[in-house]
Each structure stands twice: as C-alpha cells, then as structure tokens.
Amino acid sequence: MKQSQAMSLVEAVANVSVGYGVAVVTQILIFPVFGLHTTLEQNLKMGAVFTVVSMARSFALRRLFEAIRVHRKE
Questions:
Q1: Is 0.70 topped by the overall pTM?
Q2: What is the H or E stretch that residue 12 is in?
C-alpha cells in the first residue's frame, strides 16, 4: 500500500511536534551543564528552528524511501 504525500507530511509533522517538546526540555536541562544559559523564550525559538529543519528532513527522507519502494516494486 502506497502512502500519499499528504499522509507523509502528517506523519512527519506529528513526529516532529513531539520532538519539539523533547528538544526544548532537553535544551533546558542540558545547556546549563555546558555553561550555556538561555531564557525559555530563546529555548522555544531555537527549538522552533530545529523543528522546521527536522520536519523538512523527515518529509524528504520519507518521500525518498517511498520512491525507492515504488521503483523496486516495478
């Protein structure tokens, strides 16, 4: 069964949305260990940037692997 591009995007957004929360919490906990002191606003903004990049990466990889699967099936 082929996954549509729309469903690939939905899956990527859901995955990355959860990752956003994990990333922000991780930054808050880990940055001070390395001497980096940021505000909650800065952590949210950095998390947002990484989230957009991650979403694009996840979607592109999903489409690549779907193309490989379809190509091998032919």
A1: no
A2: helix 5-30
